């Protein structure tokens, strides 16, 4: 069991690497300072270590002055005392370790040539420091660990409302990876904050973590998520539309949630999600012989049988999203890439060589869906058919 726990500490570090890559700065991006939520303590909203939660905010202007994007930061999870203690001494468990300023790229860019439809909106990134996708609730006295993600969510939304979001005429909740999962979990709660005449939609990037069978025949992700749900108290904040018919661990998996979300939501995902390949499907604990050691890090080294296994993972993703996309209000962009998070990096969000499906890049696909210019139900053909991918090789 200790080896399994140690692996997930390693996996957590790898996760942060993916998120950093996905939000990379090219040196010219707007740098936005960190702001602590001073009112959070009165609500009992703390990061894992007891420090104040935080956010970065860039005000809108011109035609975007009354439009808002709220972006929920990603960065893995912790699922037991050891991994949460490790996490609380990092920027994903304490605001004391957070960068004093970060670059706003991709969907948060303030440049019309990088983000044509949202560049002048009010843009905020809510920092992630509870370890439970903004849904935890509890306190471990022995280790002095605060699991207050749901309270952080509420405190952050109150803060944004006080900065003018209550007067918004259109809003978008977004997030990548663990932030993408948080977007799925909180989408309808976000809608409930606004009057019926406010346009409210949600956009989840790389949040489709599947309850998939790993290379050993086990369920690594389910085992890990069980700790997140139970130890961090996430079970208390999962949608009742799911928990009334399934066990709590099943109800943190988006495949069991997305079809019941009432608010319009757009799912962006790579069919061969490299984080899930490396840390769920072909994780070291599921591959003691090391047969997947090179394939899990570099898809070009995979054998035909390994590619066939990965096609099975894609097939499950396609099946889930085909059912979900049957609703007119929802949007999908599932490309057959080996990637993880594609909305935060400029080169994948909006650039001359960005990924394309049905002759549209990601930024245009999301905007066409958001502004009701077109339906977007884009599901790619299987690997290796897509030549527009920005594939990740470790």
What's the total helix number? 10
| Main sheet makeup | 10 strands, mixed
Span from first to last CA? 27 Å
Structural class: alpha/beta
Helix content: 25-40%
Number of strands: 14
User: Topology as H/E string?
Assistant: HEEEHEEEEHEHEHHEHHEHEEHE
Briefly, what is this?
With about 400 residues, the chain is an alpha/beta fold. The chain has ten helices and 14 strands. It has helices spanning about 1-20, 80-85, 150-160, 180-190, 220-230, 240-245, 275-280, 305-325, 345-350, 360-370, and strands at about 30-35, 55-60, 65-70, 100-105, 120-125, 140, 145, 170-175, 200-205, 265-270, 330-335, 355, 360, 375-380.
Protein model, in words:
This protein is of the alpha/beta class and 394 residues long. It is built from ten helices and 14 strands. The chain has helices spanning 2-22, 81-87, 149-162, 178-191, 220-231, 240-243, 274-281, 304-324, 346-349, 362-370; strands spanning 30-36, 54-58, 67-72, 101-104, 122-126, 138-140, 145-147, 170-176, 199-205, 265-270, 331-335, 356-357, 360-361, 377-379. Strands 4-1-2-5-3-8-9-10-11-14 form a ten-stranded mixed beta sheet, with helices on both faces. A two-stranded antiparallel sheet has the order 6-7. It is globular, with a radius of gyration of 19 Å.
């Amino acid at each position: 069991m200790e080896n399994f726990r140690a692996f997930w500490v390693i996996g957590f570090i790898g996760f942060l690497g993916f998120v950093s890559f996905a939000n990379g700065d090219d040196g010219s991006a707007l740098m936005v300072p960190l702001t602590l939520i001073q009112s959070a303590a009165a609500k009992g909203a703390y990061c894992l270590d007891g420090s104040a939660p935080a956010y970065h905010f860039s005000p809108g202007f011109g035609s975007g002055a009354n439009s808002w994007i709220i972006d929920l930061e990603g960065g893995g999870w912790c699922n037991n005392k050891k991994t949460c203690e490790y996490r609380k001494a990092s920027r994903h468990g304490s605001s004391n370790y957070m960068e004093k300023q970060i670059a706003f790229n991709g969907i948060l860019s303030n440049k019309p040539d990088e983000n044509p439809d949202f560049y002048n909106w009010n843009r905020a990134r809510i920092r992630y420091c509870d370890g439970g996708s903004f849904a935890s609730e509890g306190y471990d006295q022995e280790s002095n660990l605060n699991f207050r993600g749901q309270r952080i969510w509420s405190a952050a939304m109150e803060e944004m409302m006080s900065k003018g979001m209550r007067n918004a005429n259109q809003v978008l909740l977004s997030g990548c990876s663990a932030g993408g999962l948080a977007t799925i979990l909180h989408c309808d709660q976000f809608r409930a904050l606004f009057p019926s005449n406010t346009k409210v939609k949600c956009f989840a990037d790389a949040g489709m973590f599947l309850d998939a069978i790993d290379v050993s025949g086990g369920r690594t992700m389910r085992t890990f998520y069980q700790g997140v749900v139970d130890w961090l108290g996430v079970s208390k904040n999962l949608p009742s539309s799911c928990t009334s018919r399934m066990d709590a661990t099943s109800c943190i998996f988006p495949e069991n949630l997305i079809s019941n979300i009432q608010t319009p939501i757009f799912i962006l995902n790579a069919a061969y999600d490299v984080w899930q390949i490396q840390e769920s499907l072909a994780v070291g604990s599921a591959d003691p012989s090391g047969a997947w050691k090179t394939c899990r890090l570099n898809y070009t080294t995979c054998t035909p049988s390994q590619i066939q296994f990965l096609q099975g993972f894609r097939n499950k993703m396609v099946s889930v999203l085909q059912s979900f996309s049957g609703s007119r209000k929802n949007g999908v962009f599932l490309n057959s890439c080996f990637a993880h998070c594609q909305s935060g990096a400029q080169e994948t969000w909006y650039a001359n060589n960005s990924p394309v499906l049905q002759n549209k890049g990601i930024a245009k696909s999301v905007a066409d869906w958001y502004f009701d210019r077109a339906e977007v139900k884009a599901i790619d053909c299987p690997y290796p058919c897509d030549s527009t991918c920005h594939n990740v090789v470790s």
